[in-house]
Amino acid sequence: MNGPTVSAVIVGGTAPLPPDELRPDLVVLPARASLTPAFVEVLTAALDRLPAAVRDTAPVVLAATDYCVAATSRYVTRCVEAEAGGRRLRPTEAMTPEPAQLLQELAAAGDWDGRGHVLISPRAAAFQAWRWAWGTVAAGLHRAMVVCELLRDPHGDGYRVTAVPVAAAPGPVRTKDTSVVVSGTGLVTAFGEGGEAFWRNLLAGHRALSDPTRFDASRFRGRTVCQTPVEPPPGQPVRRALLDRARAEALREAGVAEPPPRTLLVLAGVVPHLPQVAGAPRIEEIALEPDWDGDGLGVPARDAVLMAHACASGAFGLALAREWLLCGLADLAVVTGVSSLNTYDYACLDTLRATSTTVARPFDEDRSGVTVGEGAGAIVLETAGRAAARGHTPRATVAGISCRVAGQGVSRLDAHIGAACVREALAMAGRTTVDLVHGHAPGTRQGDEAELLALDQVGAEHDWRGVPVSSYKGAAGHLLHASVFPGVVAAVRALREQVLPGTPGLRKPLDARHVRVLRDAEPGDGTRSVLVNNFGFGGNNAALLLTDDTTGRGEWSTDG
User: What percent of the chain has pLDDT above 90?
Assistant: First the structure.
């Protein structure tokens, strides 16, 4: 079989290309005054060069390290200035557009359906984007993809946008008939270390609420959080201590004493080193240190991927890892995420009035916003064949997953896009219904209602009758970029123990026609499938379906 083909290299942006960089193989578009229209123009031109049958559904992989660092640095600077002046951020200061919002604008501008991913790995994002596109198209996972890089202009303040369409060569497409499984999970929450502590407290309806001690919350609207009891050694960032504990548990549960050479590490919840604001207080809680080494896992830089999809980053990371495993780019994947309490994330949510002035009550008629949580999670993935070959019984199968960057507005969940993700995850798994939905449900007025509307849309299509729905965020708080990990742990435990968790903090459930919100835990005999929703600001939407399709339940243990 012939390899993938490249039809053009399109270059545009907000900075003109110098004459000495012009080449015959480039399609150069005029420089535009602002980045968003320039980005949309370049990507549209790249998509137009793909076969008509795949143009609207071709995934876009965007490498945007420079843009992410610059945008985050500007925001941190505004936070530091506001705190020094004893004031709250103004709404105009709160949200510097994240890279994924450029993809959201692309989806809004035309027929492209928003299957996009943003890589921000230091020194390696563009290389990783190329490997992903070339590998998945060659393996037949996609008929086409577009690789895009967003680089700061070395001669000024503008940006260069380069997009390359990659399509499958004519002829039969090679596909692999295999699946990806969850071999181990690890978790740290405000309930302490371990998935077991989180699960037992969730079933009991407990709530780990406290005052924050990581930063001064006196000038913010909400002053209740779910903070972990973890105190790192002197000089070590809290985020590193949380990740170390979660990853160790996941590897132990997966029976992996030492990750193999071809291990992929995916990290959600931090950004690359930010030299522009290196002296900002506790900046290490949101940014990697300059000599970052993959958080000690020993993975080469080319295989350590950072993703940026707001609070849906974890699910987008699982989708990336699944495809890398299926097309043979890795033998094992460790997907991690972390949210350590810090003034920068909190100030943004406070300015957007997303934090609750009391406490979060997901899916409740009286909900008033988010209770921010602290914690970290890790999930070990591998193909079912590799797990069987080493004699390991997986915890669950990733039967379906869908990720889209689309919708309207910065902070609103679009019910139709959420429903599209649920619909696609079900279709990938060959199912029309599920036994449990573990909702994203952060407790916001608009988000919770839109999520139930999305589920009702799908439920109406497939005649759902009272499919149970719950959320953990009233118990352990919203872990922001790492929010998918407690949801996955809850889903895996529900499959293994045949118990459906409730929704701590819920008093008056919202009405829904085709699903029912669980206040308390209840028996779940016959539970074979759990849908986990994961949504975020900036139009980041994801849904994944876990099933108990593994061979034998085995005994639950924490030693692999």
Answer: 82
Query: What are the distances in angstroms from CA 373 to CA 211, 225, 241, 307, 339?
Result: 11, 6, 16, 20, 8
The number of C-alpha atoms within 13 Å of 233 and in the hemisphere containing its C-beta is 4
Residue found under tokens 């994203």:
440
pLDDT digits (tens, 9 = 90+) for 408-439: 777 789 999 999 999 999 999 999 999 999 99
State whether residue 426 is helix, strand or coil.
Answer: helix
Query: Tokens 């999670």 belong to which residue?
Result: 377
Calculate the alpha carbon distances from 380 to 46, 135, 265, 511 in Å.
35, 21, 10, 36
Q: Which residues of 447-476 are buried (b: 16+ CB within 10 A; e: fewer)?
A: bbbbbbbbbbbbbeeeebeebbbbbbbbbb
Phi, psi of 215 (to 5 degrees): -155, 170
Other beta carbons less than 10 A from residue 109's beta carbon: 15
Q: Which pLDDT value is given to residue 262?
A: 96
Q: Which segments of 230-295 does DSSP mark as H helices, in order?
A: 238-254
Q: What pTM does this model have? A: 0.95
Q: Which amino acid is at 501?
A: P
b vs e for 29-45, b when ≥16 Cβ sit within 10 Å of the residue's Cβ?
bebbeebbebbbbbbbb
Residue 13, helix vs strand vs coil: strand
Distance CA 495, CA 440 (A): 18
